[in-house]
Amino acid sequence: xxxxxxxxxxxxxxxxxxxxxxxxxxxxxxxxxxxxxxxxxxxxxxxxxxxxxxxxxxxxxxxxxxxxxxxxxxxxxxxxxxxxxxxxxxxxxxxxxxxxxxxxxxxxxxxxxxxxxxxxxxxxxxxxxxxxxxxxxxxxxxxxxxxxxxxxxxxxxxxxxxxxxxxxxxxxxxxxxxx
Length: 179
Known about the structure:
The chain is of the alpha+beta class. The protein is built from 7 helices and 3 strands, in the order αααααβββαα. It has 2 domains: 2-53, no CATH class; 81-177, Porphobilinogen deaminase, C-terminal domain (Double Stranded RNA Binding Domain), CATH 3.30.160.40. Strands 1-2-3 form a 3-stranded antiparallel sheet.
């Protein structure tokens, strides 16, 4: 639903359908004419050695990804200090800070994987964290965008602030956006 709303926001003239199946199945359906185009994750196509099927790479200024897209999370028991020490060795602090900012924005909106909410953050060369976020109606006709900058360690506050701004911008219609 999230990606569908983003596509319809840019191209309301398109008929958007949901493709199910693994990459090869989706590519076969495309060849068989079930659709004129499909969106697939470039990381997956790279991993599968199928980069030849890529006709256009979507940049974040064209379509923000889902919150924490591509991040890997590992859960551990809170009181397991041994495991905490082991995991600290593989943790990428900038990725963690980015994910925390994006997820706090999503939480402020009470969003889920089915809610048309997008978010993306980066750590800039100057050391600041920037977060871009969008909230859309399911049909893509209404779209609200915000962005903000903070120190990486203040990502939770930034995410909360931007989520709150989006909620205010959407107003009472926000309830209708929930899927």
